[in-house]
Amino acid sequence: MVVRGAAGRIARGNLECAAGFCRGLLGSVIPDPGRSGIVTGKPGGCRDSKGWRLTMFLDFYRLREQPFGVTPDPRFLYFSPGHREALASLFYGIETGRGFLSLVAEPGMGKTTLLFQLLKRWKGYVHSAFLFQTQCDSRELLRYLLEDLGLDSQDRDIVRMHADLNDFLFRETKAGKRVVLFIDESQNLSDAVLETVRLLSDFEAPDRKLLQIVLAGQPELEQRLGRPGLTQLGQRIAVRAQLEPLPRAEIIRYMNHRLRVAGYQGMELFTPEAAAAIAERSRGIPRVVNHLCFNALSLGCAMRSRQIGPEIVREAAGDLSMDSRPAKPQATSARVPNPQPPQRQVAHAPAPSIKSTSLSSWMNGLLSHQRVLQTSLLALLLLGLAVYLGTRAGAGTVEREQANEASSTYVPASAGQKHTSEARVPTAYDELQPTSLRQSDERQDSSNVFTYVVQPNDTLRALCLSLVGRYDETVQKEIRKLNPNLKDLVNLKAGQEIRLPLAPSKPGQDHLKNTR
Q1: Which of 85, 203, 255, 396 has the most CB atoms less than 10 A away?
Q2: DSSP annotation string for 210-271
Q3: DSSP run (H or E) holding 100
């Protein structure tokens, strides 16, 4: 088998080392505590003698900041038509004094970021409270609300907390300010707590609502509001905003928007094929797009690739356990990139059929299946090696027994004949065994030989430590035997093919052969 550079494996090894799991792979890296960066090291270690530092993909791709972060930064909010409409609806609902508003979207669609942008537009005119903790009862909800508004809630019962909240709302209204309560992940609230939230809207003056409430949550929230027990709350929601998954064209514009905000200038960082692959695997969810783009840029930097292609996206999706999604329809097969290298297919080809609607369950099942597959392959490899070594040892034992039987059944007639007989049997055995061993060596299984195409800056020592597992005189002898035309083991040339043993002899094994 021929592996051309094994770039994906080395890149993943670099990233594992950067995360604190360095195992001495080629080009291993460690985090730079001063900034999001990496320190390149010699093969077999994390840091070279000079401590030469290279920053992560921020400098490599000339970015001012992380373009695909995980925090809800309003500066990176992309106003797709759906986001723009939802923001306008919520803004209008607050401006017109509606009591209840709702925002419903799938996880990762940017609900929290949109709410922060809404708060930014009302800054100075609205006194807001933002509640994230929805695993609570009615008393705890009131306490969270008062504390977020700056009111004391210690040692107060529900009646006293209601009175304090009512006084606060009247003071803010007289000062010309609105009070808006944002409750994120509202689908987690129990029916009793949702009823308490409904009662909060009863704080009102003859001409206006003293407290406006925005319920944000996943589609389960919309389903719960349709239940008979929550009919009153559902009827009070005056504005219902919703975010749908982004189509492919919007995903590409979303990626370019975040790159521009982060300061990227230059050619398209993601090829059209790579962007299409990201749009397909993310299913239109911006959070998943961020994860895919971040992993792809990290791998691209480790592989020194100035532009991200579909192969790198597939590597990133594989690291996120997203490369087992159904293939595109046949009509778009012309745009599908080439299949992955064989070593990648071995890890993911037998992915199980996942019917669960839970993304986390799907990922956990896939990872568990991969671990079982890798363990099985390792066990088969060790079993094959044991059978091979046992067969060779058994052949030598049988030959010795046959030779001993031949010498014991022959009775010499004289001392001269005895000397001739004893000389004849060992001579036949000595001539037979080296020939057998030579033929066995010449018939060595091709699966025990690994052909590698030398990359720039590769060294034989580094390759052996990473791919063979050790580097000593025995390994050097086997490499010279496999590569008779290789004169210089120190200076390898880029593009040169070199054959490496996958299962080299242990030190002393050659001596054992000679003593046989």
Answers
A1: 255
A2: S-EEEEEE-HHHHHHHTSGGGHHHHHHEEEEEEEPPP-HHHHHHHHHHHHHHTT--SS-SB-
A3: strand 100-105
Beta carbons within 8 Å of 515's beta carbon, 6+ residues apart: none
pTM over 0.70: no
Distance (Å, whole) CA 340 – CA 329: 19
Is residue 209 classed as helix, strand or coil in its secondary structure? strand
CB contact at 8 A, 26 and 43: yes
Q: Which domains does the chain have, with CATH numbers?
A: 1-55 (no CATH), 81-243 (3.40.50.300), 375-406+417-442 (no CATH), 449-515 (3.10.350.10)
Asked if the model's pLDDT at residue 336 lies above 50, the reply is: no
The Cβ of residue 447 has, within 10 Å, a number of other Cβ atoms equal to 11
Tens of pLDDT, residues 71-129: 877 788 788 999 999 999 999 999 999 999 999 999 999 898 899 889 888 888 889 99
d(CA 296, CA 310): 9
Backbone angles phi, psi at 70, to 5 degrees: -110, 0
Longest Cα pair distance anywhere in the chain, in angstroms?
134
**What confidence score (pLDDT) does residue 94 get?**
93
- Do residues 122 and 258 make contact, with C-beta atoms less than 8 angstroms apart? no
- Give the tokens for residue 53: 């530092």
CA nearest to 79, candidates 261, 218, 212, 233: 261
CB 226 within 8 A of CB 235: no
Specify whether the CB–CB gap between 348 and 318 falls below 8 A. yes
CA distances from 266 to 61, 70, 75, 294 (A): 9, 24, 21, 18
pLDDT at 35 over 70: no
**Separation of CA 449 from chain center:** 31
Q: Closest Cα to residue 79, out of 102, 122, 110?
A: 110
Cα torsion 404, 408, 412, 417 to 10°: value is: 10
The Cα 222–Cα 226 span in angstroms is: 7
Q: Are 312 and 297 in contact (CB under 8 A)?
A: no
Interatomic CA distance for residues 325 and 285, integer angstroms: 15
Rounded-to-integer distance, Cα 153 and Cα 146, Å: 6
**Rounded Cα distance, 345 and 341, in Å:** 6
- Tell me the β-bridge partners of 53: 39
Evaluate if residue 16 carries a pLDDT over 80: no
Instruction: Report the DSSP beta bridge partners of residue 208.
Output: 205
For residues 298 and 316, give the distance between their C-alpha atoms in angstroms, rounded to a whole number: 9
Q: How many residues does the chain have?
A: 516
